[in-house]
Amino acid sequence: MKTILVTGCSSGIGYYCAKELQKSGYQVFATTRNDTDVTRLQKEGLNAYRLDLSDSKSIDDALKWALKQTNGKLDALFNNGAYGQPGAVEDLSRDVLRQQFETNLFGTHELTSKSIRIMRNQGHGRIIQNSSVLGLITLKYRGAYNASKFALEGLTDTLRQELHGSNIFVSLIEPGPIESLFRQNAHKAFKQNITIEGSAHQQVYEAVERRLAKQQTERKQDPFTLGPEAVLKPLIHALESQKPKARYYVTFPTWLFAALKRILPNIVLDWILMKVSDDENK
Ligand SMILES: NC(=O)c1ccc[n+]([C@@H]2O[C@H](COP(=O)([O-])OP(=O)(O)OC[C@H]3O[C@@H](n4cnc5c(N)ncnc54)[C@H](OP(=O)(O)O)[C@@H]3O)[C@@H](O)[C@H]2O)c1
To answer: Which terminal residue of the chain has fewer beta carbons within 10 Å of its beta carbon, N or C?
Structure first.
């Protein structure tokens, strides 16, 4: 039985993939940062434990808990837990940007480094990073999230070269829009951390507020948004293939923007991306 630790299993992609991997025979360590979610997942039959990526002790405790059940082995790690901090770049305080990086990059990095030690000892391993199309291209008001995912891409590309020949493989999954609680959680982070009044972007923020609030009650009929099952397929390929890919694109927008980035000059790509954000924020 293959073992895998998954972060961010309370909802969305992590929740779906943890359940499906368990069903297909993996020994899944489903982690989530809130105790109430741990209890809920345990009741649903998942082997769950608390792991908060912004807390080193919690990372150590969760790893210890998992390794105790496997005699110190861990075949795979799915770095999935993350959140989006919306807000114009000039309105991001140092603390807010740091929080974004604490979860999306530093915690993920710490868990990865500690897992690599285990994988090097056992002589094999798979690490799968759930990045984003926003790790490839940028959108207005997504600067903090963009920066965290671009940093994850950079660290992962370097790591892949450093792990070459070690029998430890690292892959990036690049989802576009996926149905999950991501937008609701981003809305919470926006309300908590961004001061609307007095910002040069106040009018846009008010429109964003209205849009995000609306999305909580209405499921947007967006033909490009896929269910979390769209991530499971590349995840399984990255876990099981003899030759896992460096990058897996998921959803049409990811394929499209990755291609446009390669062929268009910056000025044209910026124009398209600004139009996409403006349309979204109307
Ligand atoms: N949905 C999309 O459109 C989309 C597109 C591209 C990439 N992604 C990526 O997909 C991954 C999963 O997101 P999702 O779409 O499934 O959204 P989601 O439903 O909001 O799930 C995100 C998960 O990350 C967890 N998380 C947040 N902060 C954490 C922390 N400090 N420590 C540990 N876990 C933490 C959340 O836990 P709480 O419930 O406790 O907040 C939740 O379990 C993320 O890496 C995201 O960047 C999503």
So the answer is: N
